[in-house]
Amino acid sequence: MKRILLLIGVTFFSIGIASAQFLSYGIKGGVNYSKLKFDEISNITANTLDYKLMEDDAFQSFHFGLMTRLNIFNMYIQPELYFTTSGGNVLIEEVQASGASIEYVKQVKFSKIDIPVLLGFKMGPLRINAGPVASVVLSEKNEIEEVIPEMESLSKAATIGYQAGVGIDILKFLALDYRYEGGLSKWGDKLTIGANDYAFDSRANMHLLSLGILF
User: Fold this and answer.
1) Which residues pair with 51 in a beta bridge?
2) What's the rounded Cα separation, in Å, for the pair 102 and 91?
3) Distance between CA atoms of 14 and 173, rounded to whole angstroms?
4) pLDDT (tens digit, 9 = 90+) per residue, 132-145?
5) How many domains does the chain have?
6) Considering the entire predicted model, what is its pTM?
């Protein structure tokens, strides 16, 4: 009887260890560096003034949320869900009637939920991974409207992109990751200002540095 109880105990203990090695979950958070990529837009007319829109520097933001990792030998599948902000800075050149020009740097920021599903390969503590990411836009802050009030919203409700990067596991419960995120779908097909439409193919790209804690 004691042997049977001991065998049952060892069995459940082994199952517990196997489950912990097979499936893990945790929380994650970190910083983003994002930028809007688009072709220069010129000859914009609003309020009798002419404008030109150009790419400007990236800006820093953040992300935080949940992660799960399904281990399969030296490979793994890692679905995640987290809140993040992204977008970029836009340089606006305003040409006045006198011919003088004024430059403004304005920010376009999207608050969204990102849902990446990554397939990864492990080499000891080192990892590489890649996969699709779906983004659901919650809100948009468009400071360009402060200069050009007639401008309409840029964002769609949802977009599809991809992530690829590298990581390292530390002490079996810390996961440090760097990833690049690119867009496969546009934030918008056109830029509408007043009654005029301008071609606008903007795809956000972002660098993410994050730390995860696995349980």
Assistant:
1) 44, 94
2) 10
3) 20
4) 999 888 888 888 88
5) 1
6) 0.79
